[in-house]
# Entry
Amino acid sequence: MSILFAGMKRDFLYPFTGTPATWVSPATGNGIDAIYCDGGVEMTEDEKFQRLNLQQTPVGVMWIKMNIWRAHPNSDSRLDGYWMTFKDAAGDSIARADSVDGKWRLEVYGDTTVTGPSIVQSASSNESDWTFKIDVTGSSITVGWYVLGSLMTEVTSTNTTANRGVCTVIDWDLEDVMFEAIWDGYFRLSELIITDGDEDCRLWRCAHLPTTTAGNYSTFDSGDYSIVDDNDDTTSANSSVVGQKLSWNLDSLNAGVVVTNKDIAAVVHVSSGVSTGAAPAVTPFIRTAGTDYLGTKGSVTNENTHTQVWALNPATSLAWTFSEINAGIEVGLQTATP
# Structure
């Protein structure tokens, strides 16, 4: 596996303009599966820009999967505008998903702008999942849009002179979207998964395990486990000394999420934050079987989500099992030199 991102918390998204997206807890009929996720992000035309910056540069073909809840199964003819833009590290647009007269389509930006055919979403349910496959090479850009795992449209543009790079930025921009009032004009997003290396994640799910109790370490200057995962931007854990650690225990994994013979990966995020001290970097780690296993150091700045993936259990070098995930893994952060 090559996982660049997996999860969904409001603070994974940088509020490019306006207020942060609204955090929505699971409830019947709102598109967020409580077995997997303790909430999702709701975005409206009043919160036009939300951004995810990948800190790892994708290698090869990239897959982006998300659970989507729309205000209505099909929008009426007055829903127009862009919804999501994929960009390279230079800020140049690679592709966009947009709506024209209530029908969805892809636009790919290479040497020329190539617009794909309109696709009609299922009228049977507000809830769906969307997956985008993005293949950027030196000579072409090809983007496929999958709905409920099935390819709906694929669009290619040459890339010989535009020389767009791989996707490292996703904007949920809702640019100039016009909503009919009765459709309420919102989208809910949860269980976002991003892979590279042509790792097809269409059938994957993402279970978020919230913090429960303090772990083995609590040496930060201030703050504890209870505020590191609370979707509250006014609370924070702070450290001014290199080498300080903070760790916490996680809630158990619901047996309903387990699929026989499917992989389980442990993913740790260090997201957003503002660094003003002498050590604007942290190293995520997990603690299992009494041993700490350090990940890769990442900076802590605005517009930043640093993701660490343990595809294998570092204590055994084998695939994770359900019992190992539920056996008391600690997740932690250690301050590091820049």
